[in-house]
């Protein structure tokens, strides 16, 4: 299950607080399911992988969601360019093509 499926399962649409609450809720649900499985089951291995992917998603997405939430509601172009440049550097592996425009 990729990040897209985890986002659908968590129903994270909304603000930063909803993202955190829903992703943590999904993690709790997966851990509960995990606790009910036999030690050597294939389902346990699958759930462990999902929890690992969910942790990676949280570590990547939540800081970006907080940055988006912190964007100014109104600002001059210079402030917007600075904020969006910082966001591009945080979100993209190679932000140079975006930043060069």
Could you characterize what this model shows?
This protein has 101 residues and is an all-alpha fold. The protein folds into two domains: 1-62; 71-101, no CATH class. It is 74% helix and 0% strand. It has helices spanning 3-10, 16-35, 42-69, 77-91, 96-99. The longest helix has 28 residues, at 42-69. It is elongated, with a radius of gyration of 17 Å. The relative contact order is 0.11. The mean pLDDT is 87.
Spans of at least 5 consecutive residues with low confidence:
none
How many separate domains?
A: 2
- Percent helix, as a range, is over 70%
First-residue to last-residue Cα separation: 35 Å
The average pLDDT is: 87
- Based on secondary structure, the structural category is mainly alpha
Radius of gyration: 17 Å
Q: Assembly type of the shown chains?
A: single chain
Number of strands: 0
Our estimate of the beta-strand percent is under 5%
Q: What does the largest sheet look like?
A: none
Structural topology:
Layout (H helix, E strand, L loop, with lengths): L2 H8 L5 H20 L6 H28 L7 H15 L4 H4 L2
Helix pairs in contact: 1-2, 2-3
């Amino acid at each position: 299950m990729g990040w897209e499926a985890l986002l659908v399962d968590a129903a994270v649409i909304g603000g930063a607080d909803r993202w955190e609450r829903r992703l943590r809720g999904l993690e709790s649900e997966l851990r509960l399911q995990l606790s009910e499985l036999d030690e050597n089951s294939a389902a346990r291995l699958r759930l462990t992988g999902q929890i690992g992917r969910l942790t990676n998603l949280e570590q990547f997405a939540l800081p970006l969601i907080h940055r988006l939430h912190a964007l100014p509601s109104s600002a001059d172009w210079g402030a917007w360019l600075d904020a969006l440049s910082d966001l591009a550097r945080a979100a993209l592996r190679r932000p140079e093509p975006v930043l060069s425009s």
